[in-house]
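Structure ticket #2291
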Amino acid sequence: MFKAAIEIAAPPSKIFEFMTDPKHLQSWQPNVVEARPLPPGGLQVGAHVAATVKEYGRRFDVDLLVASMKRNEHIAYRMEAPAVSADVEYQLVQWGSQTLVFSTTAMRPKGFLRSLFPLIQGLINRMLQRKMASRLMLLRAAVESHA
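Resolution: structure written out below.
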């Protein structure tokens, strides 16, 4: 399991709204090539959200199932991609005039990556930890500069 955290100078409601709006997704998740519109009924538990991402020269579709959500406090997804499944959660905690954003990811390799994982686990762990921290820094910059 991987964890990252950051302080953002904005209330949880602004951060949650920003994070869950597909039009802002690319500003803090740069590997997203195309974010699909929210499903009918909007973002809610059980909703599927799709996106196309590009990582390491490969384009592929991901499916995100909203596993749990409490508006302005947390959202958790189950993500399915060709080489990996993951549980991703964001928690937002008001801390004075700041909001602490905690990100947690648990990854499960699939297919060919699963057989290689024991050999390259350390490398993948470092890459994922850097990616999580980078996304939170991008989120902070995007939210704090968004009017």
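Closing remark: The chain has a mean pLDDT of 90.
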